[in-house]
Amino acid sequence: MSSVAPFPGPQKDPAAANRAVPPPQAVQTRVRDPRLDFYRGIAMFIILAAHIPGNRWAGWIPARFGFSDATEIFVFCSGMASAIAFGSSFDRQGWWLGTARVAYRCWQVYWAHIGLFFFLAASMAALDLYGSFDKSYIGSLNLHWFFNNTVQQLTGIFTLTYVPNYFDILPMYLVVLLLMPLMMGLEKAGVWAVAMASVLIWLTANPYILGLGPNGVSLPAEPWSDREWFFNPFGWQLLFFTGFAFMKGWLPKPPVSKVLVVLAAGFVIFSAPFGSGKVLGWVEYWNMDLADAIRETWKPSSEWREKTDFGLLRYTHFLSLAYLGWAAAGEGGKRLIATGQSLAARIWAVLLQVVTKVGQQSLAVFVFSMALARFIGFALDQTDRAVMTTAYANLVGFFLIIGCAYGAAWFKSQPWRAKK
Q: How many domains would you assign to the chain?
């Protein structure tokens, strides 16, 4: 629809009228903010390294240096991406169609979870059946319960009442997505209503904050035990909707100041030995008395740093890291964008493009990497797991998830369709 107002009265000279219309202005290309997909892409590489069994590189992932880890990056960035993908649907097309789009995404995530489980269960069973190895790969994923009582556990898999530990991120993400229509409905009452609902739901999973004891609301993970989902969606939704709120504009952009940078960095650094056994070991090497004093805080603070229910210390630690990442990237992510023609700039441009592509295809890459990690672990079991062998295995894994990202993007572009 033209933005030029119609001329009053009849136009007797079309040519003159056309000359009177100002020439259209050149459309300015909008540079995509690289921060969301870049950091989400980084999380995908970390998640792969973290899930390779016995991986040396897993000793250097963020989880070894503080309360939070790559899971927080994935959930927070997923909330931001959901605000773009689904929040705009609610705004443009209304609550019902927005909910329908969320339901369709939940359907995709559900079947991604089911497919991942059965692919890995069948693969591990094949290794045990046809190989002569000194370990059970079914047992490595604790799937004996499934194969020993398939009728009951098959029902549990499809109803999400049986969620083995390795397969717990997508069910959590699925439930969090299902909360989105509720939050978008509450938005009509005000952003305060959304914030209150998210905090109250989080408190049901973390009642210790109110002095109500350690046992909060959770979902059962096994029919034969009291184990809950390793990622309690009622706790983790707080982080998801924090990212959602920032991208949706419900929360203002945090100002970049030296004071806040120092405070965030100080919390990340000085909290490290309180949330990391690795860092505590370093402290112990330098000062045994200090290490013992820190170790005494671990038990009393266990609920505050718990991963399952997403304890408050994890939330604070991740927000501190996220703020540092926000400040480091610069306004609009300008420091991530390669400028100049130097060799370093060109290399950085390629790396940025690759990591961003991985972040853009996070669901496909995540599912692929979870399966790939087990096969890399199997391959490493057949070696001496030397430093160079492990490095080679990780780099091959990184190369393969990059290929998965580009392949998923190619299929999504539907190149077989006729172009107009």
A: 3
Residues 217, 272: one domain? no
Q: Are 63 and 51 in contact (CB under 8 A)?
A: no
For the chain, what is the total number of helices (H) and then of strands (E)?
A: 18, 0
In a domain, 344, yes or no: yes
pLDDT at 375 over 60: yes
Q: Among residues 165, 181, 168, 318, which one has the least CA distance to residue 233?
A: 168
Residue 26 lies in a domain: no
pLDDT class for 392, splitting at 50, 70, 90? very high
pLDDT band with cut points at 50, 70 and 90 for residue 112: very high
**Which of 325, 360, 383 represents a domain boundary (last residue)?**
325
CA-nearest of 168, 294, 155, 289 to 219 is 168
Tell me, yes or no, whether 104 and 167 share the same domain.
Answer: yes
Predicted TM-score (pTM) of the model is 0.88
Quote the CA–CA distance of 388 and 66 in Å, as a whole number: 27
Q: 268 and 234 in one domain? A: no
Q: How far is CA 281 from CA 65, 233, 268, 271, 299, in A?
A: 11, 32, 17, 14, 17
Residue 25 CB neighbours (<10 A): 6
Are 118 and 140 spatial neighbours (Cβ–Cβ below 8 Å)?
no
119 occurs within a structural domain: yes
CB 260 within 8 Å of CB 325: no
**Secondary structure of residue 326 in the 3-state scheme:** helix
Identify whether residues 98 and 113 lie together within a single domain.
yes
- Tens of pLDDT, residue by residue over 148-200, are 999 999 999 999 999 998 999 999 999 999 999 999 999 999 999 999 999 99
Do both 349 and 308 map to the same domain? no
pLDDT one-digit tens code per residue, 193-243: 999 999 999 999 999 888 777 788 999 999 888 899 999 999 999 999 999
28: confidence class by pLDDT, cuts 50, 70, 90: very low
Q: Which of 229, 251, 273 is the last residue of a domain?
A: 251
Per the structure, the complete domain to which residue 367 belongs is given by: 33-58+340-412
For residue 77, give both structure tokens. 């960035």
Alpha helices of 330-386 — where are they, by DSSP H?
A: 343-360, 362-381
Residue of 247, 288, 251, 349 whose CA lies nearest to 36: 247
* 141 and 111 in a common domain: yes
Neighbouring-strand partners of residue 220: 228
SS3 string, 221-239, reads CCCCCCCECCCCHHHHHHH
